[in-house]
Each structure stands twice: as C-alpha cells, then as structure tokens.
Design goal:
Layout lengths: L1 E7 L2 E5 L4 E4 L12 E3 L2 E4 L7 E5 L10 H9 L4 E9 L3 H9 L5 E3 L6 E3 L2 E6 L12 E5 L4 E4 L7 H11 L4 E4 L19 H14 L3 E4 L4 E3 L7 H4 L4 H11 L4 E2 L7 E5 L2 E5 L6 E5 L23 H24 L4 H6 L3 E7 L5 E7 L7 E2 L8 E6 H8 L5 H4 L5 E5 L2 E4 L2 E4 L9 H5 L4 H15 L4
Parallel strand pairs: 3-6, 6-7, 7-8, 12-13, 13-14, 14-16, 20-23
Antiparallel strand pairs: 1-2, 1-17, 2-3, 4-15, 5-19, 9-10, 10-11, 11-12, 17-18, 20-21, 21-22, 23-24, 25-26
Helix pairs in contact: 1-12, 7-9
Length: about 475
C-alpha cells in the first residue's frame, strides 16, 4: 500500500510501509519572486510532518524549487532525516544552491534508471520540453504491490508511456498535468485563449497511460492580491473542468479532485481518498474563486513599486544616466541590431512612476547613427513599458525577468513591418521579435543563478 498526502501545489508526502518521500516542497507565501501565493491557502503543522527518507526535486522552476522552504528544511532537523537522499535533475544551478544550503547525499537522476531504498523503487521519467533549459523529471514510485506516477510538469511522448507500461503495466494512481499556464502572455501581448493543442495533450497522455485512477496535479497557486488582475489572464482552466473533460474523454478511468490535506490510500483493491484527513495539513481557505479566467477585464496601469517621490527622482536620474551613456553602445554591439534596422524599427521605451506619470524615450533604427531622444516619433512599431523601480533593479542587477516579466509592471507589443517600392512585408506573428531590454539584460543562466543565490543569502540560516 502507498499513501499520498497533498501538501500544496506539487508538494506531496508519499508513504509506503517503510519509506517517506517528500516532493517539491513549497510551503510559504509568497512564492515565485513573491508574486504568487498558494491557492487554496493551507494550514501546515510543520512539527507534525513525518521524518523524510527521500527528498525529490523535479526541476528548478520556483514553484517547485523554493529556496525559502529548502533553507527551512536544511536548518530544521526534525523533518529531513540525517541521511536523507536528495534526488535532483542534472542541473548545476540547482545543485549549487543545494550545496550552498549545506545539503549532502545529492543524487543526480537518470531517465528510467531505478533507485531502490527501503521497500520502494523510484524511477525518474523524462521530459521532452523543447526550448526550456531546465532539466526535469516525473517520478514513478513502486512498493512491490502498487505503482503511482507523478507527471509534475513533464512533457510526455508516447514512447515514455510505452516504457512505463513495460515496467509496471497499468499504473494504479497518477497525478496528471491539467493546466496550461499563460503567465507572461499578458505582458508580452500574446494570445490569451486556452492553448488547445497543449490542453488536449494532457487528456491524450492520460488516455494513453490508462491509469486506474487519476487526479489533477501541480497547479495550485494564484497571484497575490496586489497583482490579482493577472489571475484573470493566466489560468485558463480549472481542476473541475479537467475532470469533467476526462469523464467524457476516458469515462472508464476513475477520477477525483485532490486538495491539500486530502489523503489517497492506494492498494491493489483500489483507491480511497480521505477528505481533509491529514494529520499535518489542511485547506485553510478555499479562495479558488479568485482565479477566474476572464481575459477582457479592466487592467490597471503600470506603476512603480516605489511610492517615495524623492526616491523616484533618484531612480529617474539612474535611468537617464544609463540611457544616455550606455544604452546605444549596448544596442550597437548587439547581434540583433541588423534586424532592428532591417525592419525599420521605431522603438519607444516608456518608464512609469508611482502615480501614473511616465517618461518616454525613442530610438529610430532607420537612422545609421542611432540616438536616443525624447521627441515623439511619427509612430511606434516596437514598444516596451516598464516601471522605474523595475528598470533600476535590472540596471543594478537586483532582479530577474522571472519577476519583471510576470508582475504586470512590464508590457510590450510590436507592429513591425517594412515597406519597399511595390513591396510590403511583416514580421512573422508566430515568432518573437527581439526586445531591446531583453537583449541588454538577457534572461540567461547568469541572471538565473544570481536570482537563486539572492534567495540563499536571504533565507539561509533563518528558520
């Protein structure tokens, strides 16, 4: 028998008769650069969590790899056993963060290579997530009698399903993806409808896997109240809708909701779910009504997070100094500059203060000698709007696009085209047109590493 308890989002406690496995612990609000909170909110009795033999970290996204929670676990010796095995993907940034937090016994997993401990066999399953440099794995857990599979956020192809069947036959209990996230689409002026190909793939995975029982997993957070308008633009479906669709798509597969504090008992005879029967976690408030997908609602203007007029003026001076003394040189040395010239780009950067006011700068890429000017251009074909506080943090290396790009304080659009004699061409709408700020402050591994190390410096040693 295996027992699983949902703690929140993708964090579960999986218990066999002898082993206790903890997955992706994210326990404290706020999470993901302090933009999100768990939804539903939870009441967690930290002193009641059973001692853990295995800590599994599926990948480095901040809703699965939370430095604050990991720092707490490293300092609080009552939850993780001294010889706890830490399973991780082959990700040097993730591993370096764990070492900074003084974790030991870190084991890098390999696709479908079994790991045996006590009475369980753990088998990592791969992910085919194109265009994402975060290595990631799902996890099969088998105790000799039953098998469960946690898909987490992995992208699954038929060969993976076939190999799972080869290993264990029919899976007894599965946590399936159900929610295609649109985070960032609002800020980048991208499509805000449900991505049907992605959503239908979740149904297809369950249909191909044919587990005896499935629950929706790994998507239980929302934007904090100060950013609540983004909830209407980011979460295009719900667990209930997924289960309703599953009931039609695969009516022979048993399904259920699964909330924090619910406990699933998985045996050869079947699955029984105890509602709110956990000894250490329960739903504090079901605030899922705050996540209603209505991507046509009112949107507040961009505002700087710094409301102090004196401090804002200092920020504007930092920004002016950067724009007047560094930006043009950085753009001229950028490999994308020829593309901006080819498309005759008329670029506008608008920087917002705390009270709705803004400063505007423009660059005309039709000119051989690039200059930044405050005079208005006849039109704008490429626009970036950002709060003054966020732009200063980018200039000074104190933030990342993981915050700026999804917090609603940065927005962009383009209407890029080129007219020639008797010709008209436009930039392909399915491609991302290069953005000057993203080129000057690239969202690369260096920025990502510093983001996590800032959290290490903030939370290490603080219970």
């Amino acid at each position: 028998m295996i027992k699983t308890t949902l703690i929140g989002h993708a964090s579960m406690l999986i218990q066999s008769r002898e082993a206790t496995i903890l997955t992706d612990p994210v326990w404290f609000d706020y999470l993901w650069e302090e933009t999100n909170v768990l939804c539903p909110s939870i009441e967690l009795g930290l002193d009641k969590i059973p001692p853990v033999d295995i800590l599994n970290l599926s990948h480095r996204h901040q809703d699965h790899f939370d430095v604050r929670t990991l720092a707490y676990l490293a300092q609080n010796k009552s939850i993780l056993k001294p010889d706890v095995m830490v399973l991780v993907p082959k990700d040097d940034i993730l591993i370096d963060v764990l070492k900074e937090l003084e974790y030991e016994n870190i084991q890098v997993v390999e696709d479908f290579e079994p790991i045996r401990l006590l009475d369980v066999t753990l088998t990592p399953t791969p992910s085919f997530n194109e265009g994402d440099y975060y290595p990631e794995h799902g996890l099969l857990v088998h105790d000799g009698e039953v098998t469960i599979w946690n898909q987490v956020d992995t992208v699954v192809v038929p060969e993976i399903i076939s190999y799972i069947h080869k290993l264990y036959g029919q899976v007894d209990f599965a946590h399936s993806r159900f929610l295609p996230l649109l985070e960032g689409n609002f800020s980048h002026n991208k499509a805000l409808g449900i991505p049907f190909n992605e959503y239908s793939s979740f149904l297809q995975v369950v249909g191909a896997l044919r587990p005896k029982f499935v629950v929706p997993g790994s998507a239980a957070f929302r934007y904090r109240d100060e950013l609540a308008f983004l909830n209407q633009y980011s979460f295009p479906t719900t667990p209930d809708q997924f289960l309703a669709d599953m009931a039609i798509y695969c009516p022979e597969i048993k399904t259920s909701t699964f909330y924090p504090g619910d406990v699933a008992h998985i045996t050869k005879e079947g699955v029984k779910i105890g509602r709110q029967t956990s000894d250490f976690v329960r739903v504090q408030e079901d605030d899922s009504h705050k996540v209603a997908f209505k991507p046509v609602m009112e949107v507040p203007p961009i505002k700087s997070l710094n409301g102090d007029p004196v401090q804002h003026e200092k920020e504007i001076q930092i920004i002016k100094g950067f724009l007047e003394n560094q930006l043009i040189d950085k753009l001229n040395s950028c490999e994308k500059v020829d593309g901006w010239r080819h498309w005759q780009t008329l670029y506008q950067l608008e920087v917002f203060g705390p009270n709705g006011t803004s400063n505007i700068w423009n660059i005309d890429f039709r000119n051989e000698d690039l200059k930044i000017q405050e005079d208005c251009l006849p039109k704008t074909t490429l626009y970036e709007g950002i709060s003054a506080s966020d732009l200063v943090c980018l200039i000074e290396g104190r933030t990342s696009w993981d915050f700026v790009g999804i917090s609603g304080c940065y927005r962009t659009f383009n209407n890029v085209y080129r007219v020639g004699q008797g010709t008209f061409e436009f930039f392909p709408t399915e491609k991302d047109f290069p953005l000057p700020l993203l080129q000057v402050f690239p969202s690369d591994r260096k920025m990502d590493r510093e983001k996590y190390m800032r959290d290490v410096r903030r939370w290490k040693g603080k219970a």
